[in-house]
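Q: What would this chain look like folded?
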Amino acid sequence: MRVSNVTVRKRLALVLVVGLLTFLIIDVRLGYVQFIMGDWLTDRAKSSWSRNIPFEPKRGEIIDRNGVALATNISAPTVWAVPRQIENPAETAESLAAVLNIKKETVFQYITKKESIVRINEARKISHEKAKEVRALDLKGIYIGEDSKRHYPFGDYLSHVLGFAGVDNQGLMGLELYYDEELKGEQGSVQFYANAKGQRMDDMADDYEPPKDGLDLKLTIDSKVQTIVERELDIAEAKYNPDGIIAIAMDPNSGEILAMSSRPNFDPANFQHVSPEVYNRNLPIWSAYEPGSTFKIITLAAALEEEKVDLEKDHFHDPGYVEVSGAKIHCWKSGGHGSQSFLEVVQNSCNPGFVELGERLGKETLFKYIYDFGFGQKTGIDLQGEGRGILFKLDRVGPVEQATTAFGQGVSVTPIQQVAAVAAAVNGGTLYTPYIAKELIDPATGKVVMKKSPVAKRQVISEETSKHIRHALETVVAQGSGKGAFVESYRVGGKTGTAQKAQGGRYLENNYIVSFIGFAPADDPEIVVYIAVDNPKGTVQFGGVVAAPIVGKIMEDSLHALEVEPRKEQIEKELTWLDTPMVEVPDLLGLTNVEIRQMLVNLKIDVSGEGKKVVKQSPSAGTKVKEGSTIRIYMGEK
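A: My prediction, written as structure tokens:
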């Protein structure tokens, strides 16, 4: 059958159209692949060829408020292997094992794994000298990756607060854990390219993605104060061999922690060598126990605020005990203190006197102030593991529970709660949230990316009440049970505490936690210091005997370190037979040697220089020194 020319032409036209459409589709597809999907396909291809050697970031440093490094990093390289690039596994294993001091069978297992890249765990965080030896072997398929390990330059210093980081540079305890996300940074890498056989593709350059270092953490801790605290705790530990010691120093006007420590402690770099009970328990925020007489400050604050007592005018007779609902509650002093003002009740730490204040307040009011001062709840400090303490439920508080609570027995509180509460009692009445992290800083730019400010929770008492408390507690140190904390030329206030430890529902015999909480200067407090010593040995277990002198030493050196100006006016210390009398240094300028010797009957002199009259003296006139101290003078012509 003959086909007409018209039909032929139509068929040819159809074939042409189909051909053109086919080529158009192919061209469009090629263009799409080339221009739209090109980069994506190239990246996919590169990813199938690429091998990454991780470069770990530097964990952010932890520094004190003055920039002193407390936790840093040491560069510690790690050995990696690309199994497919290793030509002779047996020889490579033998050479590498000899340098790394590990079994060659162990190395052989790593380098023959069916993985693209393998980390040799026994060669993690090695020294630079060892890494240099590995490089010198020039083994194909063996690489050195940059890594680091945590370094604590002061050893066990501030250990419970800092905590520690694990082998993967992850925070495991303390601030290292609490701020792990901010400190850890982001991993980088060196990326090289290999074919399907694992051989390097020399025509493709390596890619380097730098790690992003973690943020630096600046603390409220003052290393000068912390060093003083650590020193005194070491001395106390050696002297008393206690079951434990707790110390906190805080700025009462902000809640900033200036120092925190406890014993037993540990070296964060070697935490595996101590019991988990040691490093897992930061006692200043975790431990809860009966506070003893330091808790009387709260009862005193409530009674003054509610105008239930006038410390100077109101009097109380203490026969040595008080009966409450058939229970006899004794004073620590056998026979009692007799008739005394309530200021003397505070100075003498008289239990029956504080029972009387508790009765004047009533349980609802007393416990309202206890809760308002922050007891029975976490303070909110930025550390892991804070305790709440234990208080009586109000509906279970009878006359006896009310009485014992008023002088600090039968309740359980944490050291940080006590410090925050007493700070509120003496700073004008404001309860602050304690905190220990001050800033987060980008180490690359120096920019502050987070800054904490003081958080005032509430006004608990008035400024006037706080003023009365400061005065009363200053007399405790100058004239009462806290004389051991007295610091010449600085006005120190405080309160002793002696709490019998309980176990299995019974109080232990001759086993006490003795404590002292002090603040200075008493007219305008800048530091609060708390010390608790658990079961000190070879001594009378009283807070005034053991803890108060420790606080006095910490307070004296810390006030100088913080450059707090001495006070000219100070309540005179009531001297005991152990005290050396204080005398005031006279003005010696312009006097002759003969005139001086006639004046200084209770002081020694050290003369230097040539001349007839005094042109310089040290200490200066008006300074109080111990009787028998040496005064240095310089003679010259005037």
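The radius of gyration is 37 Å.
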